[in-house]
Amino acid sequence: MKVTLRQLEIFAAIATYGQVTRAAEGVAMTQSAASMALSDLERQLGSPLFDRVGRQLVLNEAGRQLLPKALQVLDSVREIETAASSSTAAFDLRLGASLTIGNHLLPGLLAQLQERYPSSRFDVSLRNTEQVVADLLAYRIDIGFVEGPVQDERLQRFFWRHDRLSVFVPPEHRLAGKVATQDDLVGVSWILRERGSGTREVFDRALANATLPVRIAFELEQPEAIRQFVRAGLGLGCLPWLELRDACAAGWLALVDTPFLNLQRQFQAVVHRDKHLSLGIRSVLSLCGVDLV
Questions:
Q1: Does the pTM exceed 0.85?
Q2: Which class is 85-161+266-287 in CATH?
Q3: Which of the ends of the chain has fewer CB neighbours closer than 10 A, N or C?
Q4: Which fold is adopted by the domain 163-265?
Q5: pLDDT tens track of the chain, all 293 residues?
Q6: Domain 5-63 carries which CATH code?
């Protein structure tokens, strides 16, 4: 058997993109060469690796078993290549982060990594928690940073730091700077993150535990849009303190104390259990205080 790295590379790319054309572009091959590489690999292994669903190629059972092994081989080869081409340690990492972490915490973390490993390259995508988890499960990213609970047993979770959501209003609102009661929040309109975000999941759980009904005026993906909608008096908002501190300091938003709502949460770093824990992944986790002995 003579499975080549190029065959594994195109196989992994097709698994990521779901199409031969896009995968070929991603690894700088022609479509015909990529198709031939996949056909040769499937013939050598004696089994198809994808199911054809319309125009999409979807991993079958054999493909799902092969993918983590192929990625581990490719990651190991990249480590060898970067070590050979640089006098200092370097790596090429794909990171995914939910919006609050990506906007407020990830820049500082990447600055530390860049200082320690100046030859390294980082590709970053900012999405909600649900989307980050989907990218991890599909091996589209190497490590994810999320704000919401992650239940999938295929993923390994590492605690990073604590966080808390805060309810907020315009400064002229009757509840601005006050301690609210549960009755104060009955019938109010809310401006919230979309379903699938970690922020929304914590908020929904908190109001369900307090047996408070939720009347949603708007669901928005961007924290800045939520801040501006609340500022305009369109409803109450709930976002992480990291997203509110500047606006509250400037006086154009105000917090509402809601001691009856449990709005605590944890930020987590997450990797696939079958993912090779490369030098890059270990370096990122180390900066997050995770000790992989």
A1: no
A2: alpha beta
A3: C
A4: D-Maltodextrin-Binding Protein; domain 2 (3.40.190)
A5: 688 888 988 988 898 888 888 888 888 888 898 899 999 998 888 889 998 888 888 889 888 888 888 888 888 787 776 665 554 567 888 999 999 999 999 999 999 988 888 888 899 999 999 999 999 998 889 999 998 778 899 999 999 999 999 999 999 999 999 999 999 999 999 999 999 898 999 999 999 999 999 999 999 999 999 999 999 999 999 999 999 999 999 999 999 999 999 999 999 999 999 888 888 898 899 998 887 76
A6: 1.10.10.10
